[in-house]
Every structure is written in C-alpha cells, then in structure tokens.
Amino acid sequence: MDCSFIQVMKALGECKRLRIIKLLQERKCCVCELVGILGLSYATISGHLKKMKAVGLIIEEKSSYWTYYELNPEMPAQSQALLTIIDEMECDTCREDREKLLNKAFVCDRPVGKEKA
To answer: Using an 8 Å Cβ cutoff, are 28 and 77 in contact?
Structure first.
C-alpha cells in the first residue's frame, strides 16, 4: 500500500475533517462558511484544511478576497474510492451540517457584494 494513501486515511481519521469533506462533497466552500456551519474557530478550520490539502484531498481557489476549498478532482483513485464510501455514510450531525449549507442557515461574516471584478 502506498504511504501517501496512509496519510490520506490519517487525515480523514478526525471527525471534524470528515464533516468538512461531507460539506465539500456538496459544493466548494470558503472558510467563513465552514466556521459558521461547524462552529469552530478560523484557526481550527484552517488547520484542518491545511492537513487535507497537504495530502491532496482538497484544492483551493482564490476569488477576490476569499479562498474557496473544494475536493481535488485529480486525487488518486484510492482516495476517490475512499471518498465514495464517505459520501454514502450518513449521520445526524452530517445531515444537519448539509441542511445548514444548502439552506444557508449559518452566519458567515464575509462581506457580501464586495468581490473584485
């Protein structure tokens, strides 16, 4: 087994990171959205994103003042297979997170309408 896949499994071995992955399976998100939904600090969310980015699970996209995170479409097949299994997993907490995301039922302190052209 590839050592990088073991690192992916370690990165996913934390509940908060699994919740982030479940949200990113819905759509790309910025840090303030993840903070609003998960109720964690910016530093905590950023730390989790950094670990998942380091193992190739997610990528970032800069847009104006914000950085959006999404699943890496070019991740290795083993990681994709693992995320397929995660996508099929369901729990009350993940369901609540998804509902907050899709219904925009969270507070995001990102200024609206100030994106650069």
So the answer is: no
Quote the DSSP letter at residue 55: T
pLDDT at 1 over 60: no
Give SS3 for 82: helix
CA 115 to CA 24: how far, in whole Å? Answer: 22
Q: How many CA atoms lie within 13 A of 27 on its CB side?
A: 11
pLDDT digits (tens, 9 = 90+) for 55-70: 999 999 998 888 999 9
For each of the domains in the chain, give its residue range(s) and CATH number, in order of start: 12-101 (1.10.10.10)
The first and second tokens of residue 39, run together, are 């109720």
pTM above 0.90, yes or no: no
